[in-house]
Give the backbone structure.
Amino acid sequence: MNAFEYASPTTKEQAVKLLGNSWTEAEVLAGGTDLLSLMKDHIVEPKRLVNIKSIKELGGIAGTAKSGLRIGALVTIQELLDHPRMRKEYAALVQAAEGISSPQIRNMGTIGGDLCQRPRCWYYRAGFGLLGTQESGEPLVPNGDNRYHAILGNSGAALFVNPSSLAPALIAMNARVKIYGAKGQREVALEKFFTAPTTGSQREYDLQPNELVTEIIVPPLARAKSATYEVRQKEALDWPLTTASVVLTMTGNTVKAARIVLGHVAPTPWRSTEAEAAIVGKAVSEATAEAAGKAAVEKAKALSKNGYKIQLAKVAVKRAILLAAKGGTR
Amino acid sequence: MAEYKWPDADKRTQIGKRIARLDGAVKVSGKAKYNSDLNRPGMLHGKVLRSPHAHAKIISIDTSAAEQMPGVKAVHIINGVGFEIRWAGENIVAVAALDEPTAEDAIRAIKVQYEKLPHLVVDHDLKIAGEWATPTNESKKGDYEKGFAEAEVIHEGVYGMPVITHCCLEPHGSVTEWEDDNLLVHLSTQAVSGIAAQMATPMEIPAGKIRVKQDHIGGGFGSKFGPDAWDVAGAKLSKKAGGKPVRIFLERDAELMVAGTRPSHYAKVKIGAKKDGTLTAWQSESWGSGGPNGSGSPPLPYVIDIPNQSRKHVSIANHVGPSRAWRAPNHPQACFVTMSALEDLAAKLNMDPLEFVLKNKALLGTRKDNYADELMLAAEKIGWKKTWHPRGDKTPGPIKRGLGLSFHTWGGGGHASDCDLVIQPDGSVEVRMGTQDLGVGTRTALAIVAADTLALPLEAIKISIGDNRFPASGGSGGSTTIGGISASTRRASLDALDKIFEKAAPTLNAQPAELEAIGGKIQVKGDASRSLTWAQACAKLGAMPITVRGKNPGPGPLTSQGVGGVQMADVAVDIETGIVKINKIVAVQDCGLIINLKLTESQVYGALIMGVCWALYEEKINDQTTGKTLNANMEFYKLAGIGDIGQLEVHMMTGKGYDERGVIGIGEPPAVSPGAVISNAVANAIGVRVPGLPLTPDRVLAALETKGGR
């Protein structure tokens, strides 16, 4: 790890001033569950670390059944799970959080950190740059070991998968993200927050180097049915192979509206309007859920070693829909 | 003269009982110090610069910037200009500094120029191995062509398993320091007594000046028999730094890249039988790799001696970190290939594999009756009759259940071992031995043998091991430890007892041969009224302790070799996701006379857990383009967690037919079958063989695809 300057501001205004104008200047430290590893491996080498854990206004969960929720960026995964309203009203988010499979990570990791964490692509993590390229510029992923890489949205240079566990559920819930920066405050739909970089120096989200995610706004969902289904090989500490989060607005057994978002299948969380269209207006059954799963992967394109993920994505969507319709309890 | 045999079953007070490990409390409380925990006074931290290339020649090395860095105390070039690197992660330069970050910075400041050479880091396809493939073994038995001509049903299949690592929880490494011209080595090792001789040559000092110490080890599995290049480098750095202790323990990525692997194994198999299941012929063409030294030649077909055989093996010498002995070298590979082929043939014959194996019982060698007993017992415990079904679970829904079986063998006779048993005039007893406790319960076993023999409680025996100043005892490999150390300790204890009998006899007005040790007393056989307490008897020694040396090999039938075991697995496979879950594994195992039933069973549990890991998850993933290991971390080098292991049931065969064979090792045999037994259960569940390990979703789904539809 390189030597770095450490700052611990107590307000977001101070924090933003400490962040740099380029990505190489500073990194934001929240839970630190991944950032420190990246620094030890020299994958990121910030000159300054801005610890935001002392900024009180970035914590806490507030809101009513009517207004929806405001979740501070520093809220830990475990705080999310422990909040009394979550389990009842936001099943998909709870199930996604439960999938983060170690108590240590759940206790330290924050919701803001989960959204902004860097890809797990093993070429990136081995020092071949965000897009995984040789010195010649030749991309490594297409002809390399891409068993965990993208099956959707993979026609560009970015072939990694977005690693966020919570983003698919939050996007399915139509969440918005509040951002504070040198130019003041702005708010974007979480769905628009994630981007697929085209060069290795870009980030995977719509943030400027001197901006900070401050909170996540989740609309009221008391009347919707939601679920997240995660396909993960191990019970213990493991990354999902693919996930699907769904939020269904239903009349009886018929779906009036749906939002379906897949995780770990594309460089960004992947909203599938095809799957949504396939299930809206239908009664939920094994057959209609399966058809929605099929629709979700219609545009999927396998790389050399990840064809199996198309099947997994299909099943995840099917099972998430069935789970949601059942009321979100397995 | 003592009769060197184990006590009869009715006379055993400690041997064969379930006894908790003596070092359990210090381990769970964190008091136990592993060598990687040591923080010696003035200790320096060493780091090793490693090659980023899998195959290259070193053109130049410039260490000047590192040497000038404040805090850097010594720099040592391990492999210099002109050296041919044959795997990514190969050692180049070692640095010792005041702290770890400085050492890390220093190795990053070293400039090395490489001439890159072509590399091969994959091994699944023999065709691309080219010049790096060498035929190593070709053998025939009987007339395999005639055997296949006689066969009425023939199965052909290709099976394979990748390179995996040992993944020791405590990485490889040492703390080395000099006291004048003597070297003190705190090494994480499986061979305390064997290190000095191996280290003497590279250090250019007499072995007698090298002291090796280790109280506890966090896993070895066959990968820690010698000092490694970084340990020698540590000692050299220490010398340069005026003898200060230097600590070099591998980082996790290096541990997974360079500290040993189990070779891969792939085989094209043809196997034939008559319609009634009688096996007639075997043909295999196999290949595998374990880095620059290639692979061994797994014994195919495994255990089952099919009358007509033709076997060829090709070894690929490729550019990945070299293999080392991995818990039962060659056996897991041979077992997986053989048991898979047998099960596939049984399916083609429409036979229950249990019946199929029993039908061919005559081919199971000298212990065929033991195997038959173990098969029947395992079948009962897993519910084979009730739950086994012909291939393909026909029940509705995506979750399919299946059963599989496998069997295995191993040697495990006791290694050479010297034991000093010291008895003090106050009755204190100490066992001194240059052995090591691999976490398997060696200390506890030594105490059990001495205590049972001397008729004392366990806590009366002090165990001193883990130091090469104690009498030499073999390395812990090949499951040879328990046979060796129990035999030498039994002999020492019996001889020591004779000496105590001699001293006590006059007081008891008896001949030494008329005495016995029972319940903490020395008494005239069968006459409790004529007795001395142990302390009273030992007081007759006068002022001086006695030290009695027991040896293995030695007189009497205390250890032998050759064991068998049967495993059966019950699995659930989600055919929509390809995810395999273990419901239950039953292991029935023999290993002669058991010293400690509880820790013997623990060894089997551990082997099954390790087996679930490599059956379902483990694979060292090497990237042909970059030559690097992509998953040299614990995120993507996957191991099972507690929720992944399923229910494990262990049954040890004991009593008549087993106990009289003497003590035989257990570490390796139960580690052989898990891959085979889980693969067979999966095939039974889903109706098609998944030809490769680990049984990951991609492989399972691909196999289902070949079957056509789900």
Notes: The two ends of chain A are 44 Å apart (CA to CA). The CA atoms of residues 290 and 318 of chain A lie 5 Å apart. DSSP finds 13 helices and twelve strands in chain A.
